[in-house]
Amino acid sequence: MIPPGKTLGVLGGGQLGRMFAHAAERLGYRVHIYEPSTDSPAAEVSAHAVHAPYTDLESLEAFVRGCDVVTYEFENIPTEPLWRLENAAVFHPKWQILEVAQNRLREKTWLRKNNFPHVRFAECEAGGDLAEAIRSIGLPCVVKTADFGYDGKGQQKVTDDLSLGRAVASFKGQRAVVEQWVDFKCELSVIVARSTAGEMQCFPVAENIHTKHILDFSILPARIAPGIQAKACAIAEAIAERLCLTGLLAVELFLTDRGELLVNEMAPRPHNSGHWSLDGCVTSQFEQHVRAVTGLPLGDVSLTAPAVVMVNILGDAWKWAHDKCVGEPDWAAVLGTPRAHLHLYGKKEPRPGRKMGHFTVTAESTEAALELARALKAAL
Ligand code: AMP
Fold it and tell me: Which of 338, 268, 256 is nearest to 74 (CA)?
């Protein structure tokens, strides 16, 4: 066990690192951040920050040697420096898990090989025959880049010959994954924590609504049958176990009309769809992450209200004129509502699509929470 007072290192300095640092420091840990850019949400609230590229082995080694355990707040970190340094510090989770999660093709191949339910897919090597891969899956389908994709970036839906031609032209020379298009009933996510002792705790399943491929609302509890909830948790726990994970794992799933659950993506870190837990759960996902990687007992994951809704605040909520930002959102309504909690990430430059913050509301029913959340979002 790594007791409070010790130093936790985080690779990555985004908002997930910032909220991790808040939770860790509350428990008495010191947090060190390693982040290439000099202006980062996490460095601002941490005891120490190093700004250097992930590939700068000397800086990275000095950093990890100064930490009692090292974890991550995003998975797209080059793994070569990590395996070179694997004996220089304790890393949770291990770099092998990042390697699976940071590449869609490896991730999907891993799911298939380990018999976890996933969306039917075909791979297309760089320079391979994408049209053939698309034909093998059938229309409609979606083509995604194999590497470093998130929030719908590098994705194209293919519905007919015209969009097929467009996809072939724009993915030319790239490694890609072709996935069957799923007409899902809803999107769900589950976050599971697994500690150094192998103890596991699954947060309640979130129902997620995406707009333009980016998470917009998370609704807790998800409006699904208890059997589906249990099945989603069982899938996430089995994946965490199979990966020998220590830390957090977020698993995003599609629920089909036939009641099937299909894994879409996994991320071995705190997740946007778990932000609700800061205000609607006994233990937040960030505190749970701290507990898992330090070997503290895991915390209770019960909801603290009958319904919780989280709303992402993107740069789009700022006032724009001719592509120039001309003003902030109006925070008055969200700040003036007792059961709403505003979280801003301290990012200086708003951009459309950029995650700037979020807010949560709690209420006696899902309908009431959603209605309030929508009204507060509109009032921004
Ligand atoms: P991703 O970047 O893979 O998480 O995709 C972002 C969003 O695009 C998902 O949350 C879904 O809303 C949508 N999406 C991705 N893949 C599919 C698919 N195979 N079928 C239907 N919708 C999808």
Answer: 268
